[in-house]
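Entry, Tuesday afternoon. Goal for today is a structural model of the target with 2-acetamido-2-deoxy-beta-D-glucopyranose bound, before we commit to ordering more compound. Inputs were pasted exactly as handed over by J.K., no edits. I checked the ligand SMILES twice against the vendor sheet because last time a stereocentre got dropped in transcription.
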Amino acid sequence: TPNDKNSQMLENLTAKEYWFDHCDIFCISFQDYTATIFLRQRWTDERLCFEGNKSLSLDGRLVEMLWVPDTFIVDSKKSFLHDITVENRLIRIYPNGTVLYAIRITATVACSMDLTKYPMDKQTCTLQLESWGYNINDVQFYWTRGNDSVRGLETLRLAQYTVEDHFTSVSEAVYETGRYPKLVFHFELKRNILYFILETYVPSILLVVLSWVSFWISQSSVPARICIGVTTVLTMTTLMMGARTSLPNANCFIKAIDVYLGICFSFIFGALLEYAVAHFCTLHRSNLRVHTKVDSKQNINTSSNRKEEKSKHSGCSSPMTVMKRLFCISDCFYVKNPYHIDNYARLSFPLSFIIINVFYWVYYLYF
Ligand SMILES: *[C@@H]1O[C@H](CO)[C@@H](O)[C@H](O)[C@H]1NC(C)=O
Ligand SMILES: *[C@@H]1O[C@H](CO)[C@@H](O)[C@H](O)[C@H]1NC(C)=O
Ligand SMILES: *[C@@H]1O[C@H](CO)[C@@H](O)[C@H](O)[C@H]1NC(C)=O
């Protein structure tokens, strides 16, 4: 009704303005971010005009007695108004009826991130402000200083991110109950990859390189080569575990870092397998040599000895012979000398690692 106090107030309301002076985003997880915001709203209420040329500052307790906009943060999961030592609100009334209303709030706002390119990702998050009850016919929202309305992002120091770009926009929210004014602040976060390079990429590259050291060690030094192989595999496993704990709840995504660690793990595992193959071939060749030597010896031996030796050897080597055959078909056939396996590996492992790296980095950084 026209006499209703609230509608009277609405008629007198000319404009509301919003700007942020200080924005301190101190926590960003992969589903939300938490920010402490100084939200300042300004509007004109002509009933509050008074004589004089000085503004009047009121305490937060007097807010109850004035009309204030019913702004809320869309997508906020949890937010609170600071109240130490008193409620962090401020009201300033100017002689011409302009009211400045500032509050300090900490809000956790949903911002779902696409982590497929983690840690080479860029995320766009928004902070949306809407009027809860007054629709677009009642109030209008706009940013006081356009794209410069939000301040403090330039000096923001975040552990993992840099704020790349930010801008503001004005729109409308359409619901069943009507259309409501809406202000949106967009900001783009770029993850600082340097930390990941130092923490994960460099160690895993070094591990892969370490696993190649094995190709330069003589095939006869079994402990040395096995030691390098197993140690690098285990260290790589630890590294993969460590990378997973940095984003504990996001392990269902296959991230770029997981792909890289997977590649490194395959190379390291491949190096270990290479030794197994090469060693098997060598062993097998020497067995063959021993075998022929023994056979020639047997010819000189007495028949009783010969029988004994023969049964011993055939019992021992027949499964080996089958495996040898299978194996020789695939590998020894091409690699005349098993020592050549190492020579091939020395070239093919680094070369394929470099090629895969080129594809990986080009894909994740430019596509
Ligand atoms: C406004 O302030 C000035 C001094 O700053 C004073 O001279 C003037 O009289 C004041 N005007 C009113 C309307 O009070
Ligand atoms: C009212 O006064 C304040 C402070 O002097 C000024 O910033 C504001 O623009 C004025 N508002 C109107 C509607 O004149
Ligand atoms: C604010 O920035 C956005 C994106 O850079 C641009 O599209 C828009 O026109 C800018 N608005 C104003 C008022 O400058």
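The pocket of 2-acetamido-2-deoxy-beta-D-glucopyranose (ligand 2) is lined by residues 44, 94, 96, 98 (CB under 6 Å).
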